[in-house]
Amino acid sequence: MINGGGSPTSVESGGGGDDYDPHIHRQLEHPTTNNETLIHLLKGSLGTGILAMPQAFFNAGLFVGAICTVIIGFICTYCLHILVADHYWTELDVRLWSLILLLPLIAINMIRNLKLLAPFSQLANVITFIGIAIVMYYVFSDIPSMTTREYAGELRNFSLFFGTTLFALEAVGVIIALENNMQTPKSFGGYCGVLNKGMVVIVILYVFVGFFGYIKYGSECLGSITLNLPKDEKLAQSVNVIFALAIFITYALQCYVPVEIIWTTYMKKKYEHSEHKLLYEYIMRICVVIVTFLLAVAIPRLGLFISLFGALCLSALGIAFPAIIEICVLWPDQLGPLNYVLWKDILLILFGIVGLVVGTGTALMDIIVSFQ
Question: Does the record carry Ribonucleoprotein as a key word (predicted)?
Answer without folding.
Answer: no
